[in-house]
Each structure stands twice: as structure tokens, then as C-alpha cells.
Design brief:
Layout: H1 7-21, H2 24-39, H3 53-66, H4 70-75, H5 79-87, H6 95-116, H7 118-139, H8 151-164, E1 169-173, E2 181-185, H9 186-203, H10 212-230
Antiparallel strand pairs: 1-2
Helix pairs in contact: 2-6, 6-7, 6-8, 7-8, 7-10, 8-9, 8-10, 9-10
Length: 249
């Protein structure tokens, strides 16, 4: 005998199966970052954090608790301090910072996760993120400026993507081309991104700003890891319809 299954139930089962087979880790990391931001005083959405000076004080305390402070990390004052490169990966300084990073993670993380496998991708993401933030802290050991964001880990994902999918085509928006959406091979987009990070690092002043060094360390370490791990296997030369924005991680 055959059992009739309601159409809605069947579609629901199909949707859950597709979700379970998709890049769960990538979606989970994005969800955690978004949730952490929405619940934090940085989003400005929770009245309990107050406003004005009270809100700024709450934001400053939040950064100091969960972000990396190079001078403290290099001293290794406490186990909590040594864990801050992990917690900082889920803290972002504002809406643009969050959305830019999550866009890059969504575009490049999904395919990379499918190629590496979920557990492997998660361990790589956390490890490369820790390395990038620690390297920045070591190069700025006397700084008390807080460092937050998933940029170093996502840069590592970009490095792996460049090695594994050099010919995959992504849609990019370049300022000097009037932000026209144009499709380029991934190797062109990512090498151009790397060059921008390098030039920005050379021209950056001391003080608060973008941690370009963490980007470069993450990207370079990610590419090197992929080369060592996958050099005996064929790289993938397919195409992807994913869209990359102009926002840098």
C-alpha cells in the first residue's frame, strides 16, 4: 500500500534535506556572528544597554571583554586572554563590518566547506583565524587597541578558495569601474584583493583602523595550507554563480 503524503510535508522534508546537505558550518558561523552582534551593545537594538555615554561605555567594555588586546595577549596574563582570538572572531565593530565579512564568508565559504568537509573546514576556520589575530598582536605587542572581527579567518578561506577554485567566476563590483557588476575568474579578484591589502598595509598609519596585516597573514597561511594539503589532488576549475560585493573583509 502507498501512503499519501501532503505536498507541504513533502516540500518541507526536501528543504530540510537540502539544508542538511548544504554548507551547514558556513551558515552556522554566519548565524553566530549575526546573533552575537544583535545581542551586543554594538547593534543599538537592545534598550537595556542605555544610550549616549552609557551605551558607549557598554560598547567599550564589550570590546575589552571579547576582543584581542595585543599587549595583554602577548603577556598571556590569563587563560581568558589566550582565548580572546577565538571570541574576537564573532565580534564586529558595526553593521558594515558585519555585513561585509558575512558576505565574503557566504560567497567563498560555501564552496570551500563542500570541498574540505564540515569538520575540517570548521577547524581550519578557527585555527587560521586564531593565527591571523595572534600574528597581528605579536607585530603590535605594545598596542592596547582592541582587535575584533572574522576578517583573518575569512581571509584564510579566500586563500584556500584561490588554490582550489582559481577559475571559478565570481561577480565583483570595482569602484574604478563605476561599481558595474562584472564577472571575473576568482584568481583575478582575489589577487587584486590581496594587492589592495598589501598597499593599504604599507600606507596605513599607527592607531585604530583596519588590521590589514591579519588579512595578509590569514590569506597567505590559507593558500599555503591548501597547497600543502591538496597539491597531490586536482584542483576544481568549475564555475560558480556566487556574487561578491565590493566590501573587503
Amino acid at each position: 500500500m502507498y501512503r499519501r503524503v501532503p505536498v507541504r510535508h513533502a516540500l518541507s522534508v526536501i528543504s530540510w534535506r537540502r539544508l542538511a546537505q548544504g554548507p551547514v558550518v558556513t551558515y552556522g558561523l554566519i548565524g553566530l556572528c549575526v546573533l552575537a552582534f544583535l545581542l551586543s551593545p554594538l547593534s543599538g537594538l537592545r534598550p537595556g544597554h542605555g544610550d549616549g555615554d552609557a551605551l558607549r561605555a557598554a560598547q567599550s567594555a564589550y570590546f575589552e571583554r571579547w576582543g584581542v588586546i595585543p599587549v595583554e595577549l602577548m603577556r598571556g596574563a590569563s587563560p581568558r586572554t589566550l582565548l580572546t582570538p577565538f571570541t574576537a572572531l564573532f565580534v564586529h565593530g558595526g553593521w558594515l563590518h558585519l555585513l561585509g565579512n558575512m558576505l565574503f564568508l557566504h560567497v567563498f565559504g560555501a564552496m570551500t566547506e563542500r570541498r574540505m568537509g564540515r569538520a575540517h573546514f570548521l577547524l581550519f576556520y578557527l585555527g587560521i583565524g586564531y593565527l591571523a589575530l595572534f600574528a597581528y598582536a605579536a607585530a603590535n605587542a605594545g598596542s592596547a587597541q582592541t582587535l575584533v572581527g572574522a576578517s583573518g579567518a575569512i581571509s584564510g578561506v579566500l586563500g584556500v578558495f584561490l588554490y582550489l577554485f582559481p577559475r571559478a567566476r565570481v561577480t565583483s563590483l570595482f569602484p574604478f569601474l563605476l561599481f558595474l557588476p562584472l564577472r571575473f575568474p576568482a584568481w583575478i579578484v582575489l589577487i587584486f584583493w590581496f594587492a589592495l591589502q598589501w598597499l593599504a598595509l604599507r600606507g596605513a598609519d599607527e592607531g585604530p583602523g583596519v588590521a590589514y596585516l591579519a588579512h595578509l597573514v590569514g590569506f597567505g597561511a590559507g593558500f599555503l595550507y591548501a597547497w600543502v594539503r591538496y597539491w597531490r589532488t586536482d584542483r576544481v576549475h568549475g564555475q560558480t554563480g556566487a556574487t561578491e560585493g565590493e566590501r573587503q573583509p
